[in-house]
Specification:
By secondary structure, this protein is an alpha+beta fold. The chain contains five helices and four strands; from the N terminus they run E-E-E-H-E-H-H-H-H.
Length: about 140
Amino acid sequence: MLKQVTYQGVFEPTDRSGFSVYFPDLPGCTSYGETLAEAQRNAKDALGLHIYGMEQDCDPIPEPSAVLKVDPETADGFLVCPVTIFPSIVRDELDNRRVKTNVTIPAWVRELALEKGLNCSKLLEAAILDMAGISPLNRSTQGGQ
């Protein structure tokens, strides 16, 4: 079963149209959206990235507060909305995202690969997994480890 976490986000209207978002339980976790719906989507992304970053840094993840403490300087007309994420899904998506890396190979090897229709990225990935002794079937469980 997937574990979900829910934190309360404070959505405050800005001077221009839009909403800024912060999470009282997670200092530094902020977001923004031109509309409330966009702010909610962006808040979910920000929350997922923030929790992921804390996990990567081995920081303790605070439990959501039972009583929300809204900053007294929060703009009038603010809304408090729950924002839910599944940390394991966020972790899997981020650990398995494709990243660009530069490698240097002889020009004739690159030409050969192009002539043969070979995908250099897939070949490099397969070679690294092979050298690390990781089966391609198990690679999603290895993540960024």
